[in-house]
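cron nightly-structures :: item 1 of 1
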Amino acid sequence: MTLSDRFFALTGGPGAGKTSLIHELASRGYAARAEAGRAIIQLAADRGDDHPWRDPRDFALRMLRWDIRSYHEAEDQGPVFFDRGIPDVAGYLALVGLPMIGEVDRAAQSLRYNRTVFLLPPWRSIYIQDAERRQTFEEAQATSQAMADAYLAYGYDLVSVPKIPLEERVDFILDAVAEATRR
């Protein structure tokens, strides 16, 4: 079984429940990797930095380095669930209107996840803004579309996760993972 067979990315806009799903999967004993962007923002805030996304290109490269490290750290685990993956960085670049960075494109092409990628669509009733998530719901919708477009461009199949209670969402994902690994 290759890495890409056992690495599963969860993507979508902010506030769609990805992190809650990752935490629930981890509580059930599955390996999980944290979202780069949110972690970078939290680390910067701890250092008193206003916001690392003031320079979107630098922010994208910092997320890429984080995601590459997370990918390699998980190589001897499986299945592993990633709160966003390397193609999300490509989606972020498109979202903020920056050209593709060769390093991002090369990493997205070579460090692959399972072909099945879980898209968590925008969900207004659970969307909350906080210190790391300042986007409006409309910006969250645009982000979700940019992420979906990026994964599709890299040849992934998107599975939309239904807007159901957390435990049922996790069961839905685990059923889809079982199906994806049988192929």
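cron nightly-structures :: done
The chain has a mean pLDDT of 87.
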